[in-house]
Design brief:
Blueprint lengths: L12 E5 L4 H12 L3 E6 L2 H13 L4 E5 L5 H14 L5 E4 L14 H32 L5 E6 L12 H24 L3 E7 L25 H16 L4 H15 L3 E3 L5 H10 L8
Parallel strand pairs: 1-2, 1-4, 2-3, 4-5, 5-6, 6-7
Helix pairs in contact: 1-7, 3-4, 4-5
The structure holds nicotinamide-adenine-dinucleotide.
Nicotinamide-adenine-dinucleotide binds next to α1.
């Protein structure tokens, strides 16, 4: 695995999408503790307001903007806010994501548009809008270091049944991230990319439909989708591990390893190593 150091210093700026809940909020809390300026966005206004209050209460400088990452103009507005308040970001974490279960042929067109819109196009817009700002900052300052982190999933490396659109979106994010890694290495040593591939942590992900937009509303659920919802509910009730501990462990592990792919989960160590090695873009021939 290629190691690209993610050096975090107080006063640097981090952009985090989907920052009002789950991994995004935990990352924002870690950033606040480390003295980072935070630029946060989320589609859920009440949760974003609560996150802003909490992070500001921790002493962080925070700029918050409600937005939908599947919309190019919302991601552009986030970048404009970041430049205005803090300048070019040092860390961009394309984290916002949604999950949707069911047999792959039972996903409706709107299911596909919603899941790919948030999970894939959210990352596409984040990379397209923020990478040039980071490259411009690198060109101006030889000491500048930038890092883009895309949040995929173990579902971006392995395919489980009954979650087809999610698998497809996360495989696409891994592919996008590998290509970003390769392309950045052609032009700079100051901006790097990683992809985070967590296994299951009981966040708000099983309740993703809470933020599904009306124009992409779900149809009456099929039997396979009801089964998927029931499994999600059971997993939440069982609470495999508390979110704070689970998410913090994943993320601190990620910071520690600062490799390109950071995976985690129930698979045995050899299995994880195998997946990570296959996915090491530095080892790929171009
Ligand atoms: N929890 C897990 O088990 C797990 C495992 C692997 C990968 N992931 C990935 O981690 C990322 C974060 O998910 P989480 O588990 O913290 O779930 P979560 O639901 O707790 O957090 C996701 C956040 O994204 C926001 N969001 C949803 N749609 C959005 C949109 N269109 N624009 C902006 N924000 C939007 C939600 O409001 C929420 O605050 C996702 O990309 C998810 O796919 C999660």
């Amino acid at each position: 695995m290629s190691a690209q150091h993610l050096t975090i210093r107080p006063g640097q700026t981090a952009v985090i999408t989907g920052a009002a809940s789950g991994f995004g909020l935990e990352l924002a809390r870690l950033g606040a503790k480390q003295g980072l300026n935070l630029v946060i966005t989320d589609v859920q206004q009440d949760a974003l307001d609560a996150a802003l209050a909490e992070l500001t209460g921790m002493g962080a400088k925070v700029a918050a903007l409600r937005g939908d990452v599947s919309r190019a103009e919302d991601v552009q507005a986030l970048a404009d806010l970041c430049l205005e308040r803090f300048g070019a970001p040092h860390i961009v974490i394309n984290n916002a994501g949604v999950a949707h279960g069911g047999l792959i042929w039972e996903h409706t067109q709107r299911d596909w548009e919603w899941v790919l819109g948030v999970n894939l196009f959210g990352v596409v817009h984040g990379v397209r809008v923020f990478t040039p700002l980071m490259l411009a900052a690198a060109a101006k300052d030889a000491a500048y270091q930038g890092h883009i982190v895309n949040v995929a999933s173990m579902a971006g490396l392995l395919n489980s049944p009954n979650m087809g659109a999610y698998n497809v979106s996360k495989h696409a994010v891994v592919s996008l991230s590998e290509t970003l890694y390769q392309d950045l290495s052609l032009v700079t040593e100051q901006v790097h990319a990683s992809v985070l591939c967590p296994y299951f942590v009981p966040t708000g992900i099983s309740q993703s439909h809470r933020n599904r937009p009306g124009e992409l509303a779900a149809s009456k659920p099929t039997q396979s989708q009801l089964i998927s919802q029931a499994i999600d509910t059971l997993q939440r009730l069982w609470g495999l591990q508390p979110i704070r501990i689970g998410a913090q462990a994943h993320l601190q592990d990620f910071y520690r390893q600062h490799g390109f792919v950071t995976a985690s989960g129930v698979y045995d160590e050899d299995g994880i190593d195998h997946v990570e090695m296959r996915r090491d873009p530095a080892g790929a021939s171009v």
